[in-house]
Amino acid sequence: MYWRLSNLYFWFFALLGGLLPYWSLYLEGQGFSYLQIATLMATIQLTKVMAPSVWGWLGDRTGQRVRLVRFGAITGSLFFAGVFLEPGFYGLLLVMFAFTFFWNAILPLYEVITLRVLGSKKERYGKVRLWGSVGFIGAVALVGGLLELVPIRYLPWLLLPVFAGIAVSAFLVPSERGERKESAPKGSLKAIVTHPAVVAFFLMNFLLQVSHGAYYTFFSIHLEQHGYGKLSIGLLWSLGVIAEIGLFLIMHRLSTRFTVRQIVLGSLVLTMIRWGLIAELTGLVPVLIFAQLMHAASYGALHAVSVQYIQGFFGKHHHGQGQALYSGLTFGAGGALGAWMSGFLVDGYSTSVAFWGGAVAMALAIVVTWRGLQPPPKEA
């Protein structure tokens, strides 16, 4: 059962590892402008605004989450095949929108399936989910190594085995256990969402993802401009994920020693420093390694705190809707806007200026957090 659950995590994040660090380089090699690259990369984030809510609603409505995961895996792979037609900018925009809409459907559904299959053994979730990080790191290193040997235009072909792995593993997913329907939701969702602390929380996370726009869209191009090879780029991306894993392993200790407010403010300050270091000191390898280790704060600590924050404010009756809002408003809307804005900055100035733009977004997030963030209420 363990390997059947972890299998899909491995292949899903392996695709992310093969796509995220190198796709912008592939688009650049295809002759697209920086603004076009930003628009295409923003599509990956934009579909997160609607996909989690649509597919989550379908899963709750039909109860057929396993079938929906399989449908998303097969349909997403078929749409990705449109890349091989070399459809031009608008055609590729449509291909990426369709592909990511189905691809982004898989993970939220699968998280529910995994937790329900584990049942009372939810403490084993970390060991299952860990294989996603292994898949990401393995794919980043392998694809980066292969791209040292073959031109970047072959990247879609290198990703085909990963799509096959996702499709096969989707059909090995065990059926989830039945669960009794919850009673009618208690409390008003509107009252929760309009609470000043919750508004500050979502605004902080929105600005956080805006600041990541330059990183997820132009980090690889930025490194290539400073003389780094494909394998070196991949290893630097992997270093960020390794730091994130390390943070997750010690997060429970940090949570007992520091308040939510302290962890968030500290992480935001480190993130602002990280973007400044990447903008100005990219040529210094030790500094760049240090900046990548800060991914533990930029993503690891802030994501871990955010998941608990949503659980505390939204409770079990609105937890699903809270997670959907968190994914859509921050990773989706914030990530898409950040990618698009960074495209304008790179097109008009440079990749370094785009990272300084991220630092400015972090400064605003620090002000919002300092003035408005409050700890979530403890559940009874």
TrEMBL record:
Topology of the protein relative to the lipid bilayer: Multi-pass membrane protein
Q: Which Pfam families match?
A: MFS_1_like
Entry GO MF terms: lactose binding; lactose:proton symporter activity
* Keywords in alphabetical order: Cell inner membrane, Cell membrane, Membrane, Transmembrane, Transmembrane helix, Transport
Domain Major facilitator superfamily (MFS) profile residue range list: 197-380
Instruction: Give the stretches traversing the membrane.
Output: 7-26, 32-56, 68-85, 91-110, 130-148, 154-173, 193-211, 231-251, 258-277, 323-341, 353-373
Q: List the SUPFAM superfamilies.
A: MFS general substrate transporter
InterPro entries in the record: HcaT-like, MFS_assoc_dom, MFS_dom, MFS_trans_sf
Compartment(s): Cell inner membrane
- Species of the source: Marinobacter vinifirmus
Q: What does UniProt list as this organism's lineage?
A: Bacteria, Pseudomonadati, Pseudomonadota, Gammaproteobacteria, Pseudomonadales
Primary localization class, coarse = membrane
Protein name as catalogued: MFS transporter
Its cellular-component GO annotations read:
plasma membrane
